Amino acid sequence: MTAARTATESLHELPRRAVPAFPGWLAALGPGVVWMALAQGSGELIWWPYMVAKYGLAFLALLAPACLLQYPLTVEIGRYTLATGESIFHGFIRLNRRFGILLWILMTASFLWFGAFASAGGTALAALTHFPHGWDQRGQSLFWGYASIAVFFVAIVLSPVVYLLIEWTMKAVAAITLLGLLWACAQPEVLRVVPDFLGGLAGHGGPMPRPWDPADATKLLTAITFAGLGGFWILFYSYWLRDKGSGMAAHNGRITGLITGRAETAALGGSLPQDTGENAGRWRAWERYLRTDALIGILGNLATTLMTCLLAYALLFPRGLLPKDYELAVVQSEFFAASLGEAGRVLFLVVAAAFLADTWLATADAVARTQADIVQVLFPAARRWPQRLWYFLFICILTAVTGLTMLADQPGTLILLSAVIGFIGTVTFPVALYLLNYRLLPSHLPPWARPRQRRAVMLGVSFLAYVALAVMYLLAVLGAGE
Q1: Please, which residues have CB within 8 angstroms of residue 178's CB and are 6 or more apart in sequence?
Q2: What is the pLDDT of residues 291-346, one digit of tens each?
Q3: Would you call 328 exposed, middle or buried from its count of C-beta atoms within 10 A (0-12, 13-18, 19+)?
Q4: Which domain holds residue 462?
Q5: 175 falls within a domain
Q6: pLDDT digits (tens, 9 = 90+) for 61-81
Q7: In-domain check, residue 480
Q8: What's the whole-model pTM score?
């Protein structure tokens, strides 16, 4: 069998297996919370508060639609993994090998800079500790960024099951930040502006309080793209479902730590549902789970973003305070300090560090999973190594690369660049997912596992919206260059 044939073998060749029984909601939920917590490190803490602090409520009405646009994409990404046990990237390569390789290249380029989130989180810890003493703010931020990466790297290596480390860490981060933000929003100074804020959310934000700065076009794009898991980040949902053992992925193994555990399953361990009445009932339970889990991630993300925007409108906007460069988290400690003094500032800096630092952990894990998966899909010779070893090889590479790129520029610039690259992928995902789940896959599935065509309409809406955003962004950039 040739290499190309092996990588894109017919779905007909996958074995038919029973649909695993749904284990119950408490046991099954998790990937959506990881989705939510990872998203907290981008749009909520950085770009949406920036736009609100600078332009008030002028753009707030875009927030909810920007979040909800990702729902159909997330569900369709998850649907492929639930139905086959394979990753979404494996599906894209099945759909078209060249297209899959192009996405792989773009994804790799977009994640060369995600160490910027660790250095951005380091700004909070540097402001909190002022350590190492005698270093400037940039040096202290880099020190804490590198320290957080080192802690997470060791945790991954020693973890018995890596996904469980990710899930429980992200659950803790989500809970801490949600409770902290609720407490902050309950302060009298914040509650006073809630009526105006709700009006802005409904589209009654009024005129912009200051002239539009063309340099903010990229920031606005980033705010919309990162309202949730934008760009290539959204594809990671497939890998979390797979290692969680959701749907047909329950027949696959998990990636364990480098020292503890053993590799269990090769990269191409997919299977298709058997056509039985019992499997049909089980599949309906998994479909309900998928829609609910994805909605938890998106609505939870929307809720925390709204709270950080409310705090920005109440505390930053009246004072003209804007986060920039290495002050992304430090400036926003005003959220708490304005009402609660030094104790509030300290509390927010701790929350901000959790917001941002965990982004490196989840992203490094997800990118390493993706790279290990794609290498084994495309290159049969790579299967001589178990996927676990490829995963840890890429973890080491990503740790080294992000450590170097953290030195290259300020976090804001690096995160923006990642967003622009990722947006290219976002425009293509709805089309690819439609072709994969509504054209290629259905003929290989029992009738009860095939998606209803009306759900494809939602993908179409997302596609048109992202195309429109891309056009507006290009016009803004061209206009700024004139």
Answers
A1: 300, 303, 304
A2: 999 999 999 999 989 998 998 899 889 888 776 654 555 666 666 665 567 777 77
A3: buried
A4: 12-475
A5: yes
A6: 999 999 999 999 999 999 999
A7: no
A8: 0.90
